TrEMBL record:
This is Acyl-coenzyme A thioesterase 13. It comes from the Eukaryota. The gene is LOC100897836. It comes from Galendromus occidentalis. One of its GO terms (biological process) is lipid metabolic process. One of its GO terms (cellular component) is spindle. Homotetramer. Interacts with PCTP.
């Protein structure tokens, strides 16, 4: 199947990533809520494994959420293999075990070779982290590395 991903196809991708036991399996509890037209919304209930020694969401978890969910938003626009060129995170507030965080990603622009995305992580209305993600798009190769 080629072309942009729909919500169902993204959910299948997340399950595949979790089953492969790669780093992406750390997002096994991520729930995709919606995905379309360059946007993706997900939620994660924080567990002990998502926390730092202070008992709040680890910065690496925030960065991983920004990386993954923005990639899912991009896949709703183009089924292209991509690689991170730049990832920026601003940490604005804490979240603790049991909190449900909402991740909202948007594709600002997807050009021929670069895509620009933005992500907000919130607990309710409170902004916890915001990020920008720039990705290089491989021409003529889909997300799984197949020639288009």
């Amino acid at each position: 199947m080629s072309g942009p991903f729909c919500l169902q196809r993204l959910r299948q991708l997340v399950q595949r990533q979790v089953q492969e036991k790669t780093f992406n399996s750390t997002m096994s509890k991520l729930e995709l809520i919606s995905a379309s037209e360059g946007k993706c919304v997900a939620e994660l209930t924080l567990e002990k494994s998502h926390l730092n020694l202070a008992g709040t969401m680890h910065g690496g978890v925030s960065a991983t959420l920004i990386d993954n969910v923005s990639t899912y938003a991009l896949l709703t626009v183009t089924d292209s293999r991509s690689a991170s060129v730049d990832l920026n995170v601003s940490f604005l507030g804490p979240a603790k075990e049991g909190d449900v965080v909402r991740i909202e990603a948007s594709t600002l622009r997807a050009g021929q070779t670069l895509a620009y995305l933005t992500v907000d992580i919130r607990k309710g209305e409170r902004l916890l982290a915001t990020g920008r993600h720039t990705k290089y798009l491989q021409k003529n190769v889909d997300y799984f590395g197949n020639t288009k």
